[in-house]
Amino acid sequence: MLTPRPGRRAAALPVLHRAALALALSLVAAAAPAQTNRFAGDWPQTDFTRLAVDLTEVISGGPPRDGIPAILDPTFGPASRERALHDREPVLTYQPANGPARAYPIRYLMWHEIVNDVVDGLPVAVTFCPLCNTGMVFDARLGGQAHTFGVSGLLRHSDMIMYDHQTESWWQQATGQGIAGAMTGRELTQLPAWMESWAAFRTAHPDGLVMGEPDWRRAYGTNPYRSYDTTRPFLYSGEDPPHGIPPLERVVRVGDRAWPMTRLSREGTITEAGVTLTWAVGQASALDTSNLGDGREVGNVRVRDGAGRDVAHDIPFAFAFHAFHPNGRWMLGN
Fold first, then answer.
1. Predicted TM-score (pTM) of this structure
2. Are 199 and 258 contained in the same domain?
3. Cross-strand pairs, 154
4. Number of structural domains, the chain?
5. Do both 84 and 207 map to the same domain?
6. What burial class does residue 276 get, using C-beta atoms within 10 Å of its C-beta: 0-12 exposed, 13-18 middle, 19+ buried?
7. What is the CB neighbour count within 10 angstroms for residue 142?
């Protein structure tokens, strides 16, 4: 829960309401030590006096801190020479202002979840949470200082909580917001990036670069979350999405708006709310079959503004959009 700041609105409350508010805040403050005790031992450098969420919403995802190892030193090679990837496999594409586009294969991200990189001089955090299908690239600078990120092993609303190595503050991956520690209240800038098939990347960027296989013993190319996107959300106890939308339907999120993928795939192109969304066949779900290239069709999506520039977005599951944007707008069409 966000703690309200005092101001004119609080001053206008009736005396009884102000007294009730003061009591509620005192109870939250009293409960804070009990909430943080279970995390303080593993996170001695995290300032738990600064919180933006109720820590009772935070649970273990299974692996401990860094049990899912983030990548700190990715390597890259020419896309034209890559032979291991299947044409329909998804990659997360980032196109810098200068220099070649970079493809970050989901076959690596689903085992590491964060890749810390520097592209055209800009430090970035390339992130993917398989449980929410949120693939996002963030500017990793805060206050002019480059930060690097790791995987905490903790979840909130089934979404990965990241932490920065510099202050050990916690960050909600689905929103880029600092939720605990010294960086509470700060927000990472999301950069335009998109999920597309390896074939689509290779065709659009013949001079592009692709991340090489990390030096870890993992079953890269196989899906440890087999059939996940046709079951139920993992470790999620919140509300289902409204309008009868299945919890694990993919949606295209731009800000606090969500377009159901069923609508976009049916219409092909949608222009509204200042953006144009397009859908084309060719990309396999990374969370369906054991082999990433054999998953069912989910399509390639692009989002651009009126000038044709790429727009920051992601393609979460509907339950995740609803959890983090409970007052968000569902773009259902007619």
1. 0.89
2. no
3. 60
4. 2
5. yes
6. middle
7. 19
Question: Does residue 191 sit in the same domain as residue 232?
Answer: no
Say if CB 96 and CB 120 are below 8 A apart.
Answer: yes
| Max Cα-Cα span within the chain | 71
Angle at 285 between CA 279 and CA 286, to 5 degrees: 135
β-pairing, 102-105 vs 90-94, is antiparallel
Radius of gyration of the chain (CA): 21
Tell me the residue range of the domain where 268 lies.
228-330
In angstroms, the CA 102 to CA 314 distance is 17
User: Does residue 279 sit within a domain?
Assistant: yes
Report if residue 319 sits inside a domain: yes
Structure token pair of residue 321: 């959009």
Query: What pLDDT tens digit does each residue of the chain (334 aa) get?
Result: 333 333 333 333 333 334 443 433 344 444 455 565 689 999 999 999 999 999 999 999 999 999 999 999 999 999 999 999 999 999 999 999 999 999 999 999 999 999 999 999 999 999 999 999 999 999 999 999 999 999 999 999 999 999 999 999 999 999 999 999 999 999 999 999 999 999 999 999 999 999 999 999 999 999 999 999 999 999 999 999 999 999 999 999 999 999 999 999 999 999 999 999 999 999 999 999 999 999 999 999 999 999 999 999 999 999 999 999 999 999 999 8
- Strands of 192-313 (E only): list them: 194-197, 209-211, 251-254, 257-260, 269-272, 275-280, 300-305
Q: Same domain for 286 and 201?
A: no
Three-class HEC string of 135-201: EEEEECEECCEECCEEEEEEEECCEEEEEECCCCCEEECCCCEEEECCCCCCECEEECCEEEEHHHH
